[in-house]
Every structure is written in C-alpha cells, then in structure tokens.
Amino acid sequence: MNRFRMGLLSLISLALPAAAAAALPPATLDGAKREVEIVLYGSIPAQAYKPIRDLFEKSTGVRVSNLRAGADEIIRRAVDAKTGDNLFDVVVGNELVMSALDKKGLLESFEPPSAQGYPRNLLHPERRMTPWRAIAFGINFNSHRLTADQAPKKWADLLDPKWKRRFLLPNPALHAPTLQFFLNLEKLLGPKWLDVVEGWAKQKPRVTRDPGEEIPTLTSGEIPVSIGYIKDKFQFAGPIDFVRMDKYLASLSFIAVARNAPHPNAARLFTDFFLGPEPQQILANLGEYVLHPDVDDRFRSEVTDNQIVPMRLPAAAEREAWTKKFREMFK
Predict the structure, then answer these.
(1) Which of 19, 28, 167, 291 has its Cα between 20 and 30 A from that of 211?
(2) pLDDT score for 87
(3) 291, 236 in Cβ contact below 8 A?
(4) Residue 36 and residue 22: Cα distance in Å, rounded?
(5) Do the Cβ atoms of 268 and 257 come closer than 8 Å?
(6) What is the per-residue pLDDT for 7?
(7) How many angstroms separate the CA atoms of 149 and 128, rounded?
(8) What is the 3-state secondary structure (H, E, C) of the chain?
(9) Predicted confidence band at 85 (pLDDT cuts at 50, 70, 90)?
(10) For residue 67, what pLDDT is reported?
(11) For residues 227 and 207, what is the distance between their CA atoms, to the nearest angstrom?
(12) How confident is the model at residue 45 (pLDDT cuts 50, 70, 90)?
C-alpha cells in the first residue's frame, strides 16, 4: 500500500508545480523564466532539499542557488545585501532569523496562493513571512521500557522523585531553542513555570548539548524519558514515543521573499511552489510537522494545529540574562 501511494505521488508530482504556478499571475512565471535563477538563503532539511530543488528546476527552468549556513551567518549576509553584496531572493529560517531581517526592513509582504489554507492563527499579521513547519517540544519516552500509562503525563510530573536522574534534558544554556522553550513555559504553566524548571534542575537530569544527543541514551533504554522534539518518534530508529498533551510549545519555520529581490518573480514563484502540496509532502515524509492542510503527515491523527502554541522570541538581553541563570542551575 505504501509503495502504491508513493508511486501515485510520483505520477502526479509533475502536475503539482504547474498547478501552484497557475495560481499566480501568468506574468510571474514568464518573469521568473527570464530571471533564470533565485538565490536562497537558509537551510531546508538536507534530505528534502535536493528533490524539492530538482522538482522546481525541472518544472520551471529556474535554477536555485542555496547558501546553507547558521542563523548568525544568514543574518550577517542578508544585512550585507542592503549594501549591494551577497544579494538574496528568498530566505528560510526560524523566528530569530526572520525577526532580525524583518526589523531591518528586508522582507516583502507576500501572500502565496498555495498557503491560503494554512492555519490562520499561525500566519504573520502583515504576511512578510509564511510559516510552513512547527517544531514542537514534548516529553519523549522509550516505549520498550515504559508504557504510555507509566510515562509522565505533564511537565510537572517530572518533579516526582521516581524521575530523579531518570530523564534527559538539552542544556538551555547551550541550546537556544531549549532556552526559548523554558521561557515560554509560562504560556502553559502560568507564573509557576520557574518553580517547575527549578524543580527539574533539582532532579539532576542528564543534560545534553542538544536534543539529537539524547537519542542514543533514550533508545538504548539507559534513561527512559527525555524533554525533546516530538518529531523524534518519526525521525530516529528505535523505541521512541511521545506523551500526548493538550498543547505543545513550538518553534515555527518560515519562508519569505526579500524586499527588492534581484529576481522578484522567481522568488515569488519558488515561495509559492515550496508551500504547495508536493514539496510539503516530501518534508512530511521525513517526519516533519508541516502546516499544509492537504498533506498527510504522521502527526495528523494525534496532533492538531490548534494544539500548537507558537513560542515568542525573547529579546537578546533576556536571552543573555537567562543563559547565565540556566548555566548555574544546570551545571
């Protein structure tokens, strides 16, 4: 059945980009073909980038050049573009990247037709960026060591003495998304959020540099519980499951068109294409929680868009102050 489904997707793949392009003014496609290329800043997940790029180039004849770099480098290059160097057309990034570029006035307001069905509560008010993915935090557990009934049910459950030294935690002083998650727990827990975080520290969890570093220990069963990304269930081999909750704090990934892009038609064409069903299905097949309503990702039967709570981005001074506090708390 899975082989049949993938074969069907392959058969219709060539038609989908054309359908997405048809929703834009015909002049956009014509202009994009004259512009020949786009320059993309930011990283699409590596396993998805090549098939998405190849599909776009084959269906439109427009080349994609990609600068893959970390958030700081993307911001630096994009800001330099204002002076005429390192010009870019489209950027993909998280809240940190997009907020920095938006404050510099580098993003253009654009409503891609392919995103018309995306969840309205997650869209940017002025449409200068469009979210396409939610990276949700949750409680993961080893399903060979614990049943769903035995695993912690909510964040405060990790304060139970039975979980002392028995859960994993990315270090918020080293991993920026985890720091952001901690500071957004107030949205779920109210003013007692810090009491819970301080309680976690007293439980002496095993602290890692990032969520990916947790996986070998979690899947081996050495430590049966972790705070991490719920998509780990689908992206790593082994007995990983996540605790079903009412709400999930999540970081959003965005795509945006550059203001005064050197290839404006190609930039809009690629953005609209990327947000369409076929590229988003490629990403969903990798275990990503995508926001296109017609894409069959592996979360659909268990997590809804209304359960996703976007995390606010702390200011730089706030991040710096809390990094110092968390460094002491989880040393």
Answers:
(1) 291
(2) 81
(3) no
(4) 18
(5) yes
(6) 37
(7) 43
(8) CHHHHHHHHHHHCCHHHHHHHHCCCHHHHHHHHHHCEEEEECCCCHHHHHHHHHHHHHHHCCEEEEECCCHHHHHHHHHHHHHCCCCCCEEEECHHHHHHHHHCCCEECCCCHHHCCCCHHHCCCCCCCEEEEEEEEEEEEECCCCCCCCCCCCHHHHHCHHHCCCEEEECCCCCHHHHHHHHHCHHHHHHHHHHHHHHHHHCCCEEECCHHHHHHHHHHCCCCEEEEECCHHHHCCCCEEECCCCCEEEEEEEEEEECCCCCHHHHHHHHHHHCCHHHHHHHHCCCCEECCCCCCCCCCCCCCHHHEEECCCCCHHHHHHHHHHHHHHCC
(9) low
(10) 87
(11) 10
(12) very high
Note whether 230 and 308 are within 8 A (CB). no
Distance CA 67, CA 271 (A): 16
User: Which tokens in the block code for residue 192?
Assistant: 């007692």
**Does the reported pTM lie above 0.85?**
yes
Which two tokens mark 233? 């269930």
